[in-house]
Amino acid sequence: MAALRRGIAYFSFLRGFARVLLSSRKPAVHKPARWTKLLFAGVATAGVGGGLCAVPFQKVENFSHEALIKRAASLVTDSSSAFLSQTTLALINAITEYAKAVHTLVALQRRYLASLGKLTPAEEDSIWQVIIGQRAQVNDRQNECKHFESTWVNAVRLCEMAAEAAYISGAEHASITMTTNIQVAQSQVEEAQKLSLDADKKLAETKVKEVERMTQHAASLESNNDEEEVPEAYLRED
Prior knowledge:
Blueprint: H1 2-23, H2 27-30, H3 32-54, H4 65-114, H5 121-169, H6 172-237
């Protein structure tokens, strides 16, 4: 306010001084209109200048190269974290779907083995078609897991490099956050992989039982055939 008052007083003084000068001169000779414009332009400039001096301006922060590098490193860790998060989610979902498909296949095979020898040829063929289709689905889910696992591994490597770069550049907080995110992602994937390993174990056990049950069934059929052929051979000897 003090600066504004000084500017107004200064403006009033100059305006009065201009009037005195103009009143002592002849308008036709000295062209007061031109001098008036110049004088008031100078007064206006002085007034504005005086006003600007009283207004506090916010200084534009000048970042050093080191500060800009830290900022860039933080941005890299943020984008790498997003990439890791998406690939982790995709991989866990793929592993879960694979485990579900394997458990479904195991249930179908166990049901088939339990009813072995009790089915008609048409029923047995129908069940085998379902089992074959489920095996194809398991293979598709397994390929999907391999695809996302490869992408996830690359994401982890990228994040490790980003964490190291952030640490070297001085962005220690970003580096620590990135390292924590990597550990969390690895822990989540390991938990999901346990489900997959458990499903694979049950599938392997079911395959062993299938081989044993099929061998027993074949031996039983062969024994029945031998028993049926004995009387016929005995009758031919007679």
